[in-house]
Each structure stands twice: as C-alpha cells, then as structure tokens.
Amino acid sequence: MTKAWLAGTLVLGALLITQPTSADEPAKAAEPYRVQPGDLLDVSVWKEKDLQLEVLVRPDGGLSFPLAGDVAASGLSVEELRLELTKKLKTYIPDPVVTVAVKQIGGNHVYVLGKVNRPGDFPYSKPVDVMQALALAGGATPYAALNDIVILRRDNDHVEAIPFHYAEVERGKHLAQDIVLHSGDTVVVP
Question: How many angstroms separate the CA atoms of 177 and 130, rounded?
Fold first, then answer.
C-alpha cells in the first residue's frame, strides 16, 4: 500500500461519513419554473443572428417568434418551451439549437386582501405558501377572522374557494392546508 492510496482512502471515507445518504435525507427535485403571462424571455437560435430576441409572454399566455409563429407558452417549463420552439423551427432550420432564458419574471403574482396591514398584489420568483403571503402583506390586523381565511383560485371560468385555518397551522396542526399558491390566487382575510 502506498501513502497516497491510504490518504485517498481516508479522504473518501471521511466524505462518505459526512454526506447524508438518501435514506437519511431523500433528495427532493425542485419544481421547474413555469412560464407566465408577463414574463420577458431571451430566446436565441445558435448561428442565427435574426433569431436572437427578447420575447414578452402575452396576457393570453402565448408568444410569437419568427418562423415558429404563435406558441402557447403559459404553464410550460422553460425546457418544455425550448423543446416546443425547437420542434417548430425544424421545418426551416436543420437541427436548430434553441436557448430560452427567463430575463424578467413579470407574471407570478398573488393577491392578499381584507384585514391585513398591507393588502395588495405581491410578485414572487419562487414558490409562496399562504403563511408567507400573509407575511408579505404585513400580517393580519387585530380584528381579522384568522380562522375564516379563504384562498380563491380561478381556473378559466371556475373559482374554487379553499379554506385556511390560521390557528391550526400556527400550532403545527393540519399543515397541509398551508398550500403553495398559484399565480393569480387571492388570499382573503375577513
């Protein structure tokens, strides 16, 4: 055995001991960012100077890109949008190399209304749950009915009312109701 081999084995052993295993801490894949109306994207096609553009996602969720035409972008991950543009461009460009990057997030907003200190519209770039949205709004006022909070979620023409009982979550009970909000959700604090 050489000294170098022994030292390498000791270092590897130390790394294995200090790293958590999947049984100790399961890896949780982060949910990919979903494109929203109002987002500003940088879209480029390699070796195509005329196809390097900033593209705004329209309020209807679509975007227009030369040669690809209209593309329904809202709700797609950046990778899904890249693949869709690549597919549409293959008609005109052999083996296009498309890059899509989010330049400015303008479409993710939640609203907090009612008896909170700072009601309003709150943009976000990473997932926000109900408790975090209430914190963004400066917390509830003294006369708020905290156990009657409702989250309004619109899906096309249907509106869903999701109840939220602040006291239970505050005590660590029924934490599943502290849901991650979707863009456009409204938290109503009566």
Answer: 8
Look at the pTM and tell me if it is higher than 0.85. Answer: no
Instruction: Supply the DSSP symbol for 83.
Output: H
Query: What gap in Å lies between CA 44 and CA 53, rounded to an integer?
Result: 6
Q: How far apart are CA 50 and CA 86, in angstroms?
A: 16
C-alpha span between 130 and 164 (Å, rounded)? 8
| C-alpha angle 130-101-38 in degrees, rounded to nearest 5 | 55
Predicted confidence band of residue 155 (pLDDT cuts 50, 70, 90): confident
Strand order in the sheet with 98-104: 48-56, 40-45, 98-104
Please indicate, yes or no, if residue 168 is contained in any of the structural domains. Answer: yes
Name the one residue in this structure whose structure tokens are 């052993």: 13
Instruction: Check residue 14 and give its pLDDT.
Output: 42
pLDDT at 63 over 80: yes
Residue 69 and residue 64: Cα distance in Å, rounded?
5
Q: Specify if 34 maps to a domain.
A: no
In terms of domains, do 82 and 52 share one?
Answer: yes
What's 68's DSSP letter? T
24: its two tokens: 């100790």
